[in-house]
Specification:
- It is a single chain.
- With 143 residues, the protein is of the alpha+beta class.
- It has one domain.
- It has helices spanning 17-20, 69-80, 104-117; strands at residues 7-8, 23-27, 36-37, 39-43, 46-52, 54-57, 85-89, 92-97, 125-128.
- The termini are far apart.
Length: 143
C-alpha cells in the first residue's frame, strides 16, 4: 500500500477571515496522541468561521510512512524556507511539518507560519493546546 500524499492547498484558496480576524487553533485531543493532531480553526465571536485544520508530522514512519517521499520532501523544503506546507490529507486541511510529533513550541511556530501564509500577523493567532495522550474524558454523572 502506497503512503498517502499531501495535496497542496494554496493559502489564497482559504477563507478570507483567516487573514483579517483573530483566529484560534484548537486541538481536538492531546499533543501526545502522535504525529497527527486533529484540530480546528475558529474566529472568536463568529460562529460561522470554522475550518478543520490538523497538524501532521511527516517523518513518522512506523508502522508505515505517514506520507509519500515527495510530500515529505515538500514539507521539509517549506519549513527550511520559513513556511509551512498546507495541504489536504484524509479530506482535511493539514499543516505538514518535519518531525515525528508535536510540542508546544512546534505548534506555535507552525501556527505562526500559517498566519504569515494567509497575510496576517502572528499576533492575531492563538493556540489552544491539550496535553493529554488520550481523547478527552467525559464527565461522569454524580449521584
Amino acid at each position: 500500500m502506497q503512503p498517502q500524499p499531501i495535496v497542496a492547498v494554496d493559502p489564497f484558496d482559504l477563507p478570507d477571515w483567516l487573514g483579517t480576524d483573530d483566529v484560534t487553533w484548537s486541538a481536538d485531543a492531546g499533543l501526545r496522541t502522535g504525529h497527527h493532531v486533529r484540530g480546528i480553526l475558529t474566529s472568536p465571536g463568529h460562529d460561522d468561521h470554522t475550518l478543520v485544520c490538523d497538524l501532521l508530522a511527516v517523518d513518522e514512519a512506523y508502522p508505515a510512512p505517514v506520507t509519500c517521499d515527495r510530500s515529505r520532501a515538500a514539507a521539509h523544503q517549506a519549513w527550511q524556507h520559513g513556511q509551512v506546507l498546507m495541504g489536504e490529507y484524509d479530506a482535511r486541511l493539514v499543516l505538514a511539518v518535519p518531525g515525528t510529533g508535536f510540542g508546544a513550541d512546534l505548534v506555535l511556530d507552525t501556527i505562526s507560519r500559517l498566519a504569515k501564509a494567509v497575510g496576517a500577523t502572528p499576533e492575531r493567532f492563538a493556540a489552544h493546546l491539550r496535553i493529554g495522550s488520550q481523547e478527552p474524558r467525559r464527565a461522569r454523572p454524580t449521584g
